[in-house]
Amino acid sequence: MLSIPKYFLGYLFLLFPVFFYAEELTLSGLIQSDNQKQISSKYSGFVEKVYVQEGNRVKKGDNLLKIDSKELQTSKAQLLLSISQARLNYNTLKYEYLKTEKDYKRYKELIKKEMISKSSFEEVELKEQRLKNSLEISKKEINQLQEQLQKINKEFTYLNIKASSNALVIEKNINEGELTSISKPLLTLCDIEDLVVYLDVGESHLRRFVASKEVAVFIESLDLLIKGKIEAILPNVDPSSGNFRVKIALEKSEQLILPGMYAQVSIK
């Protein structure tokens, strides 16, 4: 019997890979979302409205939750009071300044005619300059308070939580009327547009999987055959298994494909 050296078989494998890959390889994997996020609030407060339930599909910009934050409302009320007081102070200073400015102009003419003493003129001049500086400081204070008010008004938008992308609501941990705390997970959303399949591939089959290569993906529960594209080849979480993880991105489909469904991936 003719004996073929192992190294010669290796050369044949490199030169004619199609011959060795003639048989199609089919592996099973679980469909997962490549983008799952938990929704939380930046402020504590009572949940005024919940717009979604588990299983709902939402579009980018859809309302999810509305939080009633007494903390933020109190801060805004205090700020509005500070703005009102600052404006009142500004108007008082402005009235005093305009009055003193008239005296200063009049004293300026009188000092030229030497009808008043230099000390009297300097006293009015100093008062006019002091009020002018105070008026500028008061105006800056109002502007700063207005900027703070704009920031608070922007913070109120975070109380109306909206979806940042098209997604599926897979978990709801809050109900209307309940108190929520900062950073507490309220909803879990799963992006159903960017779905992937992870395969456990043995090292002996790894040569078949090349980045950007297209594969056939069959989802039995939907009787759906779609394309997939190899995105990455990764080490396995368990190195002792001897397998590698292959990430395959699925093409978009008009049918509703959900994370958790099983898929069969075929590759030549």
Would you mind describing this structure in some detail?
This protein has helices spanning 6-15, 17-20, 70-112, 118-156, and strands spanning 25-33, 36-39, 45-50, 57-58, 63-68, 160-162, 167-172, 179-180, 187-190, 195-202, 214-219, 224-235, 243-250, 262-267. It has 268 residues and is α+β, with helices and mostly antiparallel strands. It has three domains: 13-34 and 194-267, Efflux pump adaptor protein, beta barrel domain (Elongation Factor Tu (Ef-tu), domain 3), CATH 2.40.30; 36-64 and 161-190, RNA polymerase II/Efflux pump adaptor protein, barrel-sandwich hybrid domain (OB fold (Dihydrolipoamide Acetyltransferase, E2P), Beta Barrel), CATH 2.40.50.100; 70-157. The strands form three sheets. The protein has a six-stranded antiparallel beta barrel with strand order 1-10-13-12-11-14. It has a four-stranded antiparallel sheet with strand order 2-9-7-4, with no helix packed on it. A four-stranded antiparallel sheet has the order 6-5-3-8, with no helix packed on it. The chain is elongated. The model is unreliable at 1-21 (pLDDT under 50).
Give a short synopsis of this structure.
By secondary structure, this protein is α+β, with helices and mostly antiparallel strands.
Strand content: 25-35%
Count of distinct structural domains: 3
As a percent range, the share of helical residues equals: 25-40%
Q: What is the average per-residue confidence, as pLDDT, rounded to a whole number? A: 87
CA-atom Rg in angstroms: 36 Å
The first-level CATH class name of the largest domain? Mainly Beta
